[in-house]
Every structure is written in structure tokens, then in C-alpha cells.
Recover the amino acids of this structure.
């Protein structure tokens, strides 16, 4: 058994939840569920990033105070995550007093250790990124390379984090922890940034109030990113409950999008070193979910709300598609057609039909009572291999591979039924054996797939006559031979009704 503290980025409340946010959050949720299934101790954190100029302006534009605006949008994120069955253990909001306290004690520690200094800063600032840019990194017309919007010239006296001192400590940390940043291309990207040389970074602002006050200088608030990163420490008791903090830190695993690599893979480990705590154990970086080749964003008006897709495909349909069709790491293109094809192929046809078929034949040939599986079934080895593969894949954050391995059991079970045609045969031990094998395969699939499609797997479990849920049974029960037989197998509506284009 191991312990894992899993995090999503905290989402800016200037925007409303779209499937790009849902993508990261669903992956984190499925991985958290997998670890719980395997008996690991899990703390799964998500939340909202509520300070900064961008949020302040979004609130003003709607005639609201930043607080009211943050309350409304945080509630929309919480609602979206409820709809998508996100099983977080904590939802942090950076405006909470616990967070303000933790940020102040964290950065006070960095200050006390001599890594923060006052200096003047002038530069080109992108409000959308909440970050300064070097001229060389800008697009033509002094536009932000991430958002394409014009940057603004700002000049202020700020406190600076002495990041430049951490080039060597970071390189040492990367060398000692070759697995820390994944996939390898992203690790190399982060190393490239560090090797290029690091400049000190401005971490406070006097121009805005909407933030966490600097404890040693009341005129300043911390720049939003330096309060935001610390949310991960706040949530496990940094500065308040040392025992709790040490329980979960550094067993932390951050899932992030590639847009925030620099902050998480360079600045954050450096800040941890500066505060005298260990950097995170792992940071997994994924690509963008694109729509028509472009990143979803408010500015580009190409956002898709999760609720729209849930209406058409159900929660599990959306979860399955995002997990199965967008391998973690590279960019992936979202398309309605792709989602429809995947839904019909894997969920409606392969899994849904398998269950209906088995339930129908059990009703006809076994009076509705599910027989036992055969110990020497050809499916036993298929299932054993899939369990091992799925476990390894979920642990390396490869949901697509994990589900592919799981669906191999579904395909092989369908193939066994096609080959033996129990619906044509006379009732007897042969038919019982095949149907028992199919029920056992379905039981194992329900366990393996429940982190991805929890609702459907609970229903599948119930239909094959089992009590409790696959999540309660746990991964240790995913061994061939567990289906007891003698249970009532229920017929019902299709688990995944087929959809038309
Ligand atoms: N608030 C910061 C993160 C602070 S973490 C200490 C932020 N917020 S964000 O809401 O703009 O984006 C957060 C994350 O949402 C991205 O890193 C990424 O994980 C996810 N995504 C937003 N749009 C996305 C896509 N189109 N595709 C995939 N992920 C996307 O940055």
C-alpha cells in the first residue's frame, strides 16, 4: 500500500468550466479512484484560483465585487465536478483564510531564509497569463505567445524571489529525481528552461489589493501565481498542522497542462527548496484538448461545456471518451464525431451488448440464475494479464492504455460467445461454463473500469447479481474465479443506448 496526494491545477474563476478543465479533472479523478481501488491511501485535491488582476477585471466587467464573482464561479466549478462525479477529498479556494495563513507562513519562511528581496521591476505583462514576458518571447506586435493578446508595460517596486540562486539546486534535484517530471519530453523542456539561466522573479504587487497580503510589508500583495502554487501545501496543513503536512508531503503528484509547466516544474520546486521543504515527488504534464486544432479558451469562443456532452452521452460516455481517446502527454483533438464513434463502438456495442446478451441467454438457458465460471477458462489468462497491465498503466497516468487493456477482456468475451453460441445450444454444463465465464469477465471488467465509468460499473455489478459495488470490492477481488454463481442476473435497459449521428 502506498500513499498519494493527487492534485489538479486550481482553476481561474474568470472563466467557467469547459471540457479542457474537465479533461484534467477527470483524469485526476480516475487515477485517484484507481489508487483507492488498489487500497492506497489517497488525498485528492482540486479547487479554484481566485486572486489576481484577471479575476479582478472579470468581476468588474460584471459589476460584481471580486468576492461575489469568485463565489459564483467557484460554485459553478463545484457543480460541474458534481455532475462529472469527481470524487475530490477537498476543494480549496484561495480566498479562504486557511490559504492566506499558509501562503504567509510559507513565503515568510522563504523571506526569513534570505531568498526574497525588494527591487524595481519594469516589464511587459500579460494579464491573461498573469506573467511578465521577455521581449524575445513575444509574438509580432508585442502579443502574448500563449493568448495572442497585447501585453502591457508595467513598472513597480516589488519583492523578488531570488530564483537565480536555484539554478544549480534545481539541476541537482532533477538529476537526483529522474522520474519527477513526466513525460520525458516535458522534463527536457523544464531542464532546458533551467539551463538557459534563471532570472529573479517578481512575486508581489502594489498595484492591486485583490490578493494575499505580504506579512512583512502591508503595501504589497503576493502576485497571484505565488499564492496559487502554495494551495497544494495549504490543503495538507502547511504551517498549521505539521503532522498532517508530513503525512502527505512530499508524496504529492501534480497533474497539470503544458501551459503551466514553467510555474510547476521550475518555480514551484525552487520555492519548495527555498522554504526548506522537499519539492513534489511527481509532476505529470499533459497536452491540450483542442477543438478544430485550437486550444479551448474564452477569448477564442470555442469552449464546450461538459453539461452539453453529458446530455447526449451521459457522464460515463464523456468520462470514457476523454480518458480513452486523448493519451496523456500530447495534444488531442476533441470532435463530436470521434466521441460518437467511440461511444457506440466500446460502450454501446462491446460492453453494453455483451451484458444484454449474457443476461438474455442466462434468462433463457439458466432460468435467470448466473452459473459459476470455469477455473480453466480461456478468459482467465486474458483477465489476469489485463489486470496487471491496467494497474501499471493507471499508475503511470496512461488511462488510454489502461482502458485498452480492460476492453481486451470485453472483446475476448464477445469472441468466446461468438465461437460457442450458447444461445443455440441445449442447456447443460457446456452452456453454463461459457455463461459463467462471461459473467466472471463482466465482474472483473466492472472492477477495472469503475475508476473511469463509475455509474455504469455500479449498474453492471447490480445486473449480474452482486451486492455492494465494484469500488468496495477493490482490485484484490479482480482475480479469476470470484463470481460465486447462483445469483439472479437481471435484464434491463441497455447500459449504453446506441446513439445516432
Ligand atoms: N490558475 C492557474 C493554475 C494554478 S495551479 C497552482 C491556471 N488556471 S486555468 O484555469 O487557466 O487552467 C488550468 C488548467 O486547466 C490547465 O493547466 C490545464 O490543465 C487545464 N486546461 C485548460 N484548458 C485546457 C485545454 N483546452 N486542454 C487541456 N487542458 C486544459 O492556469
Amino acid at each position: 500500500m502506498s500513499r498519494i496526494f493527487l492534485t489538479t491545477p486550481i482553476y481561474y474563476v474568470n472563466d467557467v468550466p469547459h471540457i479542457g478543465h474537465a479533461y484534467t479533472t477527470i483524469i485526476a479523478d480516475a487515477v485517484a479512484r484507481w489508487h483507492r481501488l488498489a487500497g492506497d491511501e489517497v488525498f485528492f485535491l482540486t479547487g479554484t484560483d481566485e486572486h489576481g488582476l484577471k479575476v479582478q477585471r472579470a468581476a468588474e466587467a460584471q459589476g460584481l465585487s471580486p468576492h461575489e464573482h469568485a463565489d459564483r464561479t467557484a460554485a459553478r466549478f463545484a457543480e460541474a465536478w458534481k455532475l462529472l462525479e469527481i470524487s475530490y477529498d477537498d476543494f480549496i479556494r484561495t480566498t479562504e483564510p486557511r490559504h492566506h495563513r499558509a501562503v504567509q507562513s510559507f513565503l515568510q519562511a522563504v523571506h526569513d531564509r534570505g531568498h526574497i528581496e525588494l527591487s524595481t521591476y519594469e516589464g511587459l505583462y500579460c494579464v491573461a497569463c498573469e506573467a511578465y514576458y521577455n521581449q524575445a518571447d513575444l509574438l509580432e506586435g508585442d502579443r502574448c505567445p500563449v493568448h495572442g493578446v497585447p501585453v502591457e508595460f508595467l513598472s513597480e517596486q516589488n519583492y523578488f524571489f531570488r530564483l537565480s540562486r536555484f539554478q544549480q539546486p534545481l539541476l541537482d534535484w532533477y538529476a537526483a529525481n529522474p522520474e519527477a517530471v513526466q513525460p520525458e519530453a516535458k522534463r527536457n523542456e523544464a531542464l532546458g528552461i533551467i539551463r538557459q539561466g534563471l532570472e529573479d522573479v517578481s512575486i508581489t504587487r502594489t498595484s492591486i489589493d485583490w490578493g494575499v497580503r505580504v506579512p512583512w510589508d502591508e503595501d504589497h500583495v503576493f502576485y497571484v501565481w505565488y499564492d496559487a502554487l502554495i494551495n497544494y501545501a495549504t490543503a495538507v496543513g502547511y504551517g498549521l498542522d505539521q503532522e498532517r503536512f508530513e503525512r502527505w508531503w512530499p508524496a504529492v503528484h501534480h497533474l497539470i497542462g503544458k501551459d503551466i509547466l514553467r510555474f510547476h516544474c521550475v518555480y514551484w520546486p525552487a520555492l519548495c527548496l527555498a522554504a526548506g521543504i522537499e519539492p513534489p515527488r511527481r509532476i505529470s504534464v499533459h497536452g491540450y484538448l483542442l477543438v478544430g486544432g485550437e486550444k479551448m479558451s474564452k477569448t477564442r469562443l470555442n469552449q464546450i461545456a461538459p453539461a452539453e456532452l453529458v446530455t447526449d452521452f451521459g457522464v460515463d460516455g464523456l468520462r470514457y471518451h476523454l480518458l480513452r481517446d486523448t493519451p496523456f502527454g500530447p495534444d488531442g483533438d476533441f470532435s463530436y464525431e470521434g466521441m460518437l464513434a467511440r461511444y457506440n463502438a466500446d460502450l454501446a456495442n462491446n460492453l453494453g451488448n455483451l451484458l444484454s446478451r449474457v443476461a438474455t441467454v442466462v434468462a433463457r438457458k439458466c432460468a435467470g440464475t448466473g452459473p459459476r465460471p470455469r477455473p480453466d477458462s480461456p478468459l482467465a489468462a486474458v483477465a489476469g494479464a489485463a489486470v496487471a497491465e491496467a494497474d501499471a498503466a493507471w499508475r503511470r497516468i496512461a488511462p488510454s492504455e489502461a482502458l485498452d487493456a480492460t476492453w481486451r477482456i470485453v472483446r475476448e468475451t464477445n469472441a468466446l460467445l461468438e465461437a460457442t453460441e450458447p444461445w443455440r445450444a441445449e442447456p447443460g454444463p457446456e452452456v453454463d461454463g461459457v455463461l459463467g465465464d462471461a459473467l466472471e469477465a463482466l465482474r472483473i471488467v466492472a472492477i477495472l473500469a469503475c475508476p473511469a465509468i463509475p455509474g455504469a460499473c455500479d449498474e453492471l455489478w447490480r445486473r449480474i447479481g452482486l451486492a455492494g459495488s465494484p469500488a468496495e470490492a477493490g482490485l484484490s477481488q479482480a482475480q479469476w474465479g470470484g463470481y460465486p454463481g447462483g445469483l439472479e442476473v437481471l435484464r434491463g435497459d441497455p447500459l449504453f443506448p446506441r446513439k445516432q449521428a
